[in-house]
Write a structure and sequence with these properties.
single chain; about 575 residues; alpha+beta; six-stranded antiparallel sheet; elongated
Length: about 575
């Protein structure tokens, strides 16, 4: 084989290798296989509590000045013992660090890449091919001699080199343009012959006339991808609202847990004060020793209530830290979170029709339905086009040049001495066309279903808004009732203490009214927090967030090696 043709093939391979191809993937994206060990899937490991018992902390050593200076220079400082945070700071920290949001904010970048992939279907493509062939054909009369070689009349041997390069361009109208240049070298190996060169320039266009014709039908897949991108953006917005609303609820639950612990600690002080009073009365001989036992039982009950309230507070703190996901403030850190924003409920008289209209305007579910219906309209239009026969018009223009040398061939090609034209029409019609009919019928059914779902969803949204308004009003009334109850129970408690001091009541009577006072105070705290949460729920029901500041989210685009 001629060396220069080998060099031509190598150059073609190098050219193809230099074109855009596989990306250099980051180590985290490299291919690997993961196989779970069978033992991990089929063996249940027992747990022995003694294995996980924490060691007792070592006694603190007195630090030298050098050790103290080294501790100050340590960059990884321990978490603070306490941290105050307002409701506004809670929202800002959640928006910046929440793990659920960080995951969801990547979704718009994924859908944007899907849109880019669909839009790229109209990109032009470069193609090239090269082939080498040796042809050894016998003539009309030939025979094989004893050595195995053929001889006769008309026997021929050819050495052919064919190559073609071109550009193919898809059109938004559904057609295709093709520009190509072919180069051919044919060498008859018979003695006294010379190579022949031939070049061809070809331009061709293929255009559907009915089915798959027109920009609207060929933009269908891109249109669907853009709708899906908007749906993803809408879903991300809903996730931002959901997470921030959850942060607000978590904030107020933490607030309630801290206030509940304060109530229980105050009740423990009152129970301890009652025990002291009982001891004085018994020592004075005015009451029996049983009063001390009753008072001690009351102190023990209040201590148990404190333990329960502290555990509930730790649970709420972990929930709050998880929502925040603030760096250096993991859920296992001992930092005590202190809500800085106090509950200051204000009674509102809402304009119900206006809030319902706001919900219809902002609820993500309704917007997604509108986008889905738009998708259905596009599908119906596309499938209606697919009902048509496939009629395709093809046109080809060709110029040929030939010569004893490649330069002679290109000279003839440039002069366009030999021009060829071809035009043709092809028709393809399915008999019955049942597949296209049923696809179109299915798309129409889906659209009718979504329209019915839209009406049902609007009714559900209206109901959720009305329920949220009623709940907010009921919680406000609960605040009034609980506050009045707490005031009255406080007066009753003072009266019972005075009655005890004059010997008309027992410790049990005092402790009972003290328990009722604690329950009334807890009910007031619960009512306050429930009202604040009901306002959050009311805003969420209208597709908005509580507060005066707007929030604009930005999608997160991870850095990847593909450019």
């Amino acid at each position: 084989m001629n060396k220069k043709y080998i060099i031509l093939i190598l150059c073609s391979v190098i050219l193809l290798a230099s074109l855009p191809g596989c990306a250099m993937l980051d180590p985290e994206d490299q291919y690997y296989e993961y196989k779970v060990p069978g033992k991990k899937l089929h063996t249940i490991t027992p747990i022995e509590p003694n294995q996980f018992t924490a060691p007792k902390p070592a006694p603190a050593k007195e630090q030298t000045p050098d050790a103290k200076a080294e501790m100050k220079a340590e960059p990884n400082l321990p978490p603070p013992p306490e941290m105050q945070m307002s409701l506004e700071e809670c929202r800002a920290t959640t928006l910046q660090n929440n793990l659920e949001l960080q995951s969801q904010l990547i979704a718009p970048a994924i859908s944007a890449a899907a849109v880019g992939a669909e839009e790229a279907k109209f990109e032009a493509a470069f193609y090239a091919n090269t082939s080498l062939s040796n042809t050894d054909s016998p003539g009309s009369k030939s025979r094989l001699d004893t050595s195995g070689y053929s001889s006769g009349y008309g026997a021929s041997q050819y050495h052919n080199v064919n190559s073609r390069t071109g550009v193919q361009m898809p059109l938004r109208t559904g057609g295709t343009l093709d520009f190509s240049l072919a180069d051919s070298r044919t060498h008859n190996l018979a003695p006294g012959t010379s190579p022949q060169y031939q070049n061809n320039f070809t331009f061709s266009v293929s255009q559907p006339l009915l089915k798959n014709a027109g920009q609207r039908v060929n933009m269908h897949s891109i249109r669907l991808a853009r709708y899906e991108k908007q749906i993803t953006d809408n879903t991300t917005k809903l996730e931002v609202i959901r997470v921030l609303a959850a942060a607000d609820r978590s904030y107020w639950r933490l607030y309630a847990a801290r206030k509940e612990l304060e109530v229980r600690k105050e009740q423990h002080k009152l129970a301890t004060a009652q025990l002291e009073r009982a001891k004085r009365m018994v020592n004075a001989g005015q009451m029996a020793n049983i009063e001390i036992v009753r008072a001690e039982a009351g102190v023990a009950r209040q201590l148990a209530a404190i333990i329960s309230a502290e555990n509930n507070l730790r649970t709420r703190q972990r929930e709050f830290k998880r929502v925040l996901n603030r760096p250096g403030l993991d859920i296992e850190t001992p930092t005590i979170m202190i809500p800085a924003t106090e509950a200051d409920p204000v009674h509102y008289t809402f304009d119900t029709p206006k809030l319902i209209d706001q919900a219809f305007e902002n609820r993500a579910e309704l917007l997604e339905l509108e986008l889905r219906i738009a998708e259905d309209v596009s599908k119906i239009d596309y499938l209606n086009n697919q009902m048509l026969p496939l009629v395709t018009m093809d046109y080809t223009y060709n110029v040929t040049g030939t010569g004893m040398t490649r330069n002679d061939s290109y000279d003839m090609l440039n002069k366009k001495n030999y021009e060829n034209h071809r035009i043709g029409v092809s028709l393809w019609v399915p008999l019955g066309n049942e597949a296209a009919k049923n696809n179109l019928r299915q798309a129409m059914y889906v659209k009718r279903q979504r329209l019915a779902t839209k009406a049902s969803q609007r009714q559900l949204v209206k109901q959720e808004v009305l329920d949220a308004l009623d709940q907010a009003e009921a919680n406000w009334q609960q605040i009034m009732a609980a506050r009045q109850d707490a005031l009255l129970e406080g007066d009753l408690y003072q009266a019972e203490v005075r009655q005890f001091e004059v010997g008309l009541r027992t410790s049990t009577d005092v402790l009972d009214i003290q328990t009722k006072l604690a329950d009334a105070q807890s009910a007031e705290i619960t009512a306050l927090v429930n009202y604040e949460i009901s306002l959050v729920d009311m805003a969420y029901a209208t597709g908005t967030l509580l507060g005066a500041d707007k929030i604009e989210w930005q999608a997160t685009t991870p850095i990847v090696p593909v450019k």
